[in-house]
């Protein structure tokens, strides 16, 4: 498996929130390779761009959720996946935990927390 | 009442003729029997010593049986009357035995006829008196404790002995006198039995045993009347059979008593069976009602928990949407800030994002709380303060948060969160020009119950009043602090002592 790109894929069904996240990622000096609002699109873009890090929302458009997308990406691409979820319910956390998450962030995500987790994920993916 | 008094109440509503004893009918049967027997004896002129012995034996056996039955009743139902009656009838049974066995006795110089008169006729009187006196006294003793029974028995035995002696001395038969009475010494017996019948009839209407005694006493009184006219068998002028009629009457009275007591037991059994059947029926219907009620409650419970579940789901959804909308506004602020060149405008948007974060965090905490209404304030204050410090990019500022465990609701958490946001922001803005220092957030309860929030730093310090003159942002923060303090019905003290200490005091009930 070849090395992954030093880029971030944003998976989020609210476009404005996706845009906000993109700005925050770019402000950290990182590249955003794309945004997706469905699980299938997320998998397609992950295969295309091979990003080192993916910010993954739990609620997505369509019948599949973030965990479905993450599962497929984990198997085929191997990106570090940071879940960004609105729910702190144990049910959601249990479901996320099935799928090798790199980290879980709860909305509202502070700029500081976002930067720390994304940097750690980049480092773990081999990008200083 | 023989037994099962506890059941009397429950069986009252299922009254049945089978449950009670008809003492009147019993008395009528006994009187008819006595009448027929008396007529037979008088017409047939029965005067056989064997017949006499048969009747004496019958009287002994029947009274002995009655005494045992009464004793049993008194044990089972704890009726003092039955206990004292058992003693009286027991002594009578003993007297009857003496009267029966004494016919076998004969002194060496006596002829059979002389012995008959001395012993048999002589022992009739004492047993007659002892019976009426004993049964009558039992009625008077019924209010006394059972232990009086021993004294009662002893007194009856002594009375019997005394009567035996007196009757040995007194003449057995006399010439027909007043009303043709030949045995005036026995005149008291029917009179006493009549008194006994009257007493039991008047005094103890509620007791079935007493009713039985009443019926028997009537027959006894009649029977003993005949004895007053008995004469020795060898007297040619005698009306043959009066003595035997009296004996027969006594046995009839005893049989009546036995019949009554047996019927009382049978009636009681019938009543108990009826009550038990009723109890079983009631139990079944109770069980059925309990079952129905339980099913209703289970269904109601299921509906309620479903309603609660739906409410929880809705609340979570609302919190989620509020949070999402705040997130949207936050994103718009981020996007807007990028397009602005003016640093003051960028700072203002950053300040807005901090406040939005406080609101979003409150909803996040609520969503994950067990009751969806309250959450622990301590981790909330920690996350809130951390975010503010991270936002400045100043890495050398140490934060400590010490809060007592306190569960707060939305109405308190929002102003508190915003207030802490403003106070921590102020410290960060004014206290640490070199980017190093400590900030402490404390929430505590004083001894008098007052809540106190302290935000302190060890920096250069600022004056809340000075700050308000510097610019719009500072002015907004000050205005917000003033507004939030007033909303919390709180008082704020700002002191400068090795830094700035802001102390907010508010009542405990504001927090709940």
Brief rundown of the structure:
The complex is a heterodimer of chains A (128) and B (512). With 128 residues, chain A is of the alpha/beta class.
Distance between the termini of chain B: 67 Å
**CATH topology tier name of the largest domain in chain B:** Rhopdopsin 7-helix transmembrane proteins
Question: How many structurally independent domains of chain A?
Answer: 1
Which descriptor suits the 3D outline of chain B?
Answer: rod-shaped
Mean pLDDT over the residues of chain A: 89
- Helical stretch count of chain A? 5
CATH superfamily of chain A: Response regulator
What's the topology here?
The complex is a heterodimer of chains A (128) and B (512).
Chain A: E1 5-11, H1 15-27, E2 31-36, H2 39-49, E3 51-57, H3 66-76, E4 80-85, H4 90-97, E5 103-106, H5 111-124
Helix pairs in contact in A: 2-3
Chain B: H1 5-11, H2 23-44, H3 49-77, H4 80-101, H5 112-141, H6 148-169, H7 188-203, H8 208-227, H9 242-339, H10 343-367, E1 374-376, H11 377-392, E2 396-403, E3 407-409, H12 410-430, E4 436-445, E5 451-457, H13 464-470, H14 472-487, E6 491-496, E7 500-506, H15 508-511
Parallel strand pairs in B: 2-4
Antiparallel strand pairs in B: 1-3, 4-5, 5-7, 6-7
Structure description:
The complex is a heterodimer of chains A (128) and B (512). With 128 residues, chain A is of the alpha/beta class. Chain A is built from five helices and five strands; from the N terminus they run E-H-E-H-E-H-E-H-E-H. Chain A has one domain: Rossmann fold (3-Layer(aba) Sandwich). In chain A, strands 2-1-3-4-5 form a five-stranded parallel sheet, with helices on both faces. In chain A, strand 1, helix 1 and strand 2 form a beta-alpha-beta unit. The radius of gyration of chain A is 13 Å and the shape is globular. Chain B is built from 15 helices and seven strands. Chain B has a five-stranded mixed sheet. In chain B, strands 1-3 form a two-stranded antiparallel ribbon. In chain B, a hairpin with a 5-residue loop joins strand 4 and strand 5. In chain B, helix 1 (5-11) packs across helix 9, helix 3 (49-77) runs antiparallel to helix 4 (80-101) and helix 9 (242-339) packs antiparallel against helix 10. Classes of the chains: A alpha/beta (128), B alpha+beta (512). The A-B interface holds A 14, 16-21, 23-24, 86-89, 106-108, 110-113 and B 316, 320, 323-324, 326-328, 330-335, 338, 356-357, 360-361, 364, 367-368, 383, 386-387, 389-391.
């Amino acid at each position: 498996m070849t090395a992954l790109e030093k880029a971030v894929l944003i998976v989020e069904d609210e476009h404005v929130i996706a845009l906000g996240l993109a700005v925050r990622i770019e402000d950290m000096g990182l590249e955003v390779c794309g945004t997706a609002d469905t699980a299938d699109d997320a998998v397609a873009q992950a295969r295309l761009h091979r990003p080192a890090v993916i910010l993954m929302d739990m609620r997505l458009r369509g019948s599949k959720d973030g965990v479905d997308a993450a599962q497929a990406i984990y198997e085929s691409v191997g990106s570090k996946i940071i879940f960004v979820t609105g729910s702190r319910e144990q049910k959601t956390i249990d479901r996320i935990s099935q799928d090798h998450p790199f980290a879980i962030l709860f909305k509202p995500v502070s700029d500081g927390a976002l930067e720390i987790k994304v940097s750690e994920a980049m480092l773990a993916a081999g990008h200083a | 009442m023989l037994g099962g008094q506890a059941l009397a109440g429950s069986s009252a509503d299922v009254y049945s003729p089978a449950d009670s004893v008809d003492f009147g009918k019993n008395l009528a049967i006994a009187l008819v029997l006595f009448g027929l027997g008396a007529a037979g004896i008088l017409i047939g002129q029965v005067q056989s010593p064997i017949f006499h012995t048969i009747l004496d034996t019958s009287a002994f056996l029947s009274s002995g049986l009655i005494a045992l039955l009464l004793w049993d009743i008194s044990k089972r139902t704890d009726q003092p009357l039955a206990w004292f009656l058992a003693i009286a009838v027991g002594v009578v049974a003993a007297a009857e035995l003496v009267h029966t066995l004494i016919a076998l006795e004969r002194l060496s110089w006596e002829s059979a006829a002389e012995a008959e008169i001395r012993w048999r006729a002589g022992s009739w009187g004492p047993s007659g008196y002892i019976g009426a006196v004993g049964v009558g006294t039992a009625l008077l003793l019924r209010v006394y404790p059972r232990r009086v029974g021993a004294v009662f028995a002893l007194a009856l035995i002594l009375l019997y002995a005394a009567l035996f002696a007196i009757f040995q001395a007194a003449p057995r038969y006399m010439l027909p006198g007043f009303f043709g009475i030949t045995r005036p010494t026995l005149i008291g017996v029917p009179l006493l039995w009549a008194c006994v019948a009257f007493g039991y009839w008047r005094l103890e209407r509620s007791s079935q045993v007493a009713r039985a005694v009443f019926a028997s006493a009537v027959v006894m009184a009649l029977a003993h009347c005949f004895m007053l006219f008995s004469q020795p068998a060898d007297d040619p002028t005698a009306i043959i059979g009066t003595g035997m009629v009296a004996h027969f009457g006594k046995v009839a009275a005893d049989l009546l008593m036995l019949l009554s007591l047996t019927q009382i037991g049978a009636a009681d059994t019938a009543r108990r069976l009826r009550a038990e059947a009723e109890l079983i029926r009631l139990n079944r219907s109770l069980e059925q009602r309990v079952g129905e009620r339980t099913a209703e409650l289970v269904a109601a419970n299921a509906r309620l928990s479903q309603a609660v579940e739906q409410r929880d789901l809705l609340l979570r959804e609302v919190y989620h949407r509020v949070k999402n909308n705040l997130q949207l506004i936050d994103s718009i602020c981020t996007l807007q800030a990028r397009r602005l060149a003016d640093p003051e405008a960028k700072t203002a948007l950053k300040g807005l994002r901090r406040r939005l974060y406080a609101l979003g965090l409150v909803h996040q905490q609520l969503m994950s709380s067990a009751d969806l209404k309250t959450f622990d304030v301590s981790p909330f204050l920690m996350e809130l303060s951390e975010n503010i410090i991270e936002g400045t990019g100043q890495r050398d500022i140490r934060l400590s948060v010490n809060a007592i465990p306190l569960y707060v609701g939305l109405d308190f958490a929002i102003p508190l969160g915003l207030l802490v946001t403003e106070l921590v922001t102020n410290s960060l803005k004014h206290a640490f020009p070199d980017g190093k220092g400590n900030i402490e957030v404390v929430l505590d309860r004083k001894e008098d119950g007052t809540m106190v929030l302290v935000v302190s730093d060890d920096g250069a310090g600022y004056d809340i009043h000075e700050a308000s003159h510097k610019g719009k942002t500072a002015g907004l923060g000050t205005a917000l602090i003033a507004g939030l303090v007033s909303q919390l019905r709180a008082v704020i003290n700002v002191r400068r002592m090795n830094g700035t200490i802001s102390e907010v005091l508010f009542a405990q009930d504001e927090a709940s």
